[in-house]
Amino acid sequence: MPTKSKQVNRKPKPAGDVQAFAEAAECLKTLAHPVRLRMVQLLLHGRYTVGELAEDCGVPDNVASEHLRLMQRCGFFTSEREGRWVFYRVAEPHLEDLMSCVEGRFLSGR
Questions:
Q1: Of 1.20.1250.20, 3.30.360.10, 1.10.3720.10, 1.10.10.10, which CATH number belongs to 21-106?
Q2: pTM for the full model?
Q3: What is the mean pLDDT of residues 80-88?
């Protein structure tokens, strides 16, 4: 026998569906790596080459390239070629809000 739910004073339900959250979860899993978070942080302050990002993050160029490829697949980054250089930049403006949250929680006071 179904029970009657108690009437509770609630806000209207927010829009959303499980499929959209599944997509979000996959991209958040991609972000959940220290090197990728550092790349986001750097790219929010300007554009960088693979070599520059690799050096700052202390990883080989090919490893940095793989991280960048994964981030591009989620639509977080974009790249542009200038001569022999490829520069990466942030394509997803919401990354700034996410990074502010991460920095505020984990980097403040260090």
A1: 1.10.10.10
A2: 0.86
A3: 97
